[in-house]
Amino acid sequence: MPTAAPLPAATWVERHRGQLPSYVTSGFYRDEDGHSDLVQSGGESNGEDRAIAQHLVDIGRVRPRTFPTTAQHVETKVGWRMRVSGVAR
């Protein structure tokens, strides 16, 4: 019986993928009073990303029953926090 060919060595990306953080992008949001929060891309345990997605559905930017991944982007979250808090810039 022939033996199976050896598996190719894992590529650098495959070897290191598991070491990547669960978020892709991070940054700080600073309000007009100088308070700051770390903002990371991805889902939020407080549901912020789902609230953003629902808002995008409500204003007709995306179809109902879809989840726009842009709701999990740092830039979108910062814009949302500005909108919710009434910060202009």
Automatic annotation (TrEMBL):
This is Uncharacterized protein.
